[in-house]
Design a protein that fits this description.
Layout lengths: L19 E5 L5 E4 L1 H7 L3 H4 L14 H12 L4 E8 L5 E12 L5 E9 L3 H20 L4 H19 L3 H7 L2 H4 L5 H11 L1
Antiparallel strand pairs: 1-2, 1-5, 3-4, 4-5
Helix pairs in contact: 3-5, 4-5
The structure holds flavin mononucleotide (FMN).
């Protein structure tokens, strides 16, 4: 196993109707992984349970995306995000993840849950990979990790501001959400104006 985070550049994939599932505690330690998670990442259950979820972190993922993920779920909200993950042997696979907090009956967050589906290839190729490449370059431009992440977050914010949308909305409008009937704030506004 390549513990050093080395990568092969080989992309692996899964079925359109399949879902890769994992659950974590409040700190992001894996508490559950389904069969597909283990099969695609190339780990046994014993190798992942109790490990930090960053076990499958791919070095090409911008840190600012995970920062946004954690900010969102720790305040009790869900997030949709495109993520590239690293298999144990250094191969990689792209997912479209829906990460949600789990609550107890008193409304406190007790853990997190991620369901991942196969993303559309064209969305990764045309929108996400180029964006993440820019964010990662911004992060790597700084010797200080925190400063780099702030620079990349600022870049992400400005890219989104140019489009007048939030990250989640940006992700949704790329295709998947739209097919499920999701509308952007702008489209809702147009509908409101038309209805008035
Ligand atoms: C439910 C859940 C699922 C996650 N899934 C992934 C994942 O598939 N890949 C990944 O790299 N990080 C995932 N993360 C984020 C990791 O916890 C971690 O923040 C990330 O790998 C970056 O590592 P770092 O925080 O050590 O920099 C997940 C977190 C949660 C709470």
């Amino acid at each position: 196993m390549a513990k050093d985070g080395s990568i092969t550049g080989v992309e692996v994939s899964f079925g359109q109707d399949e879902i890769i599932v994992s659950k974590t505690d409040l700190k992001g330690t894996i508490t559950y992984a389904n069969r597909l998670f283990l099969d695609i990442a190339g780990y046994t259950e014993a190798e992942v349970i109790g490990q930090p979820h960053s076990l499958i972190r791919h070095p090409h993922m911008p840190r600012c995306i995970f920062q946004l993920l954690w900010e969102t779920i720790s305040r009790g909200e869900e997030i949709f995000a495109y993520v590239v993950n690293r298999c144990k042997n250094g191969d990689h696979y792209w997912v479209y993840a829906h990460v949600t907090p789990s609550f107890d009956s008193a409304g406190s967050i007790i853990g997190y849950h991620s369901n991942r589906r196969l993303p559309e290839q064209a969305i990764i190729r045309d929108s996400i990979a180029p964006l993440y490449e820019k964010l990662r370059a911004a992060e790597e431009n700084h010797s200080n990790r925190k400063e780099g992440m702030h620079a990349a977050s600022a870049m992400l914010t400005s890219v989104l501001a140019e489009q007048g949308i939030e990250y989640d909305e940006f992700v949704m409008t790329l295709g998947q959400g739209r097919r499920r009937g999701y509308r952007t704030a702008q489209e809702n506004e147009i509908r409101r104006v038309e209805a008035a």
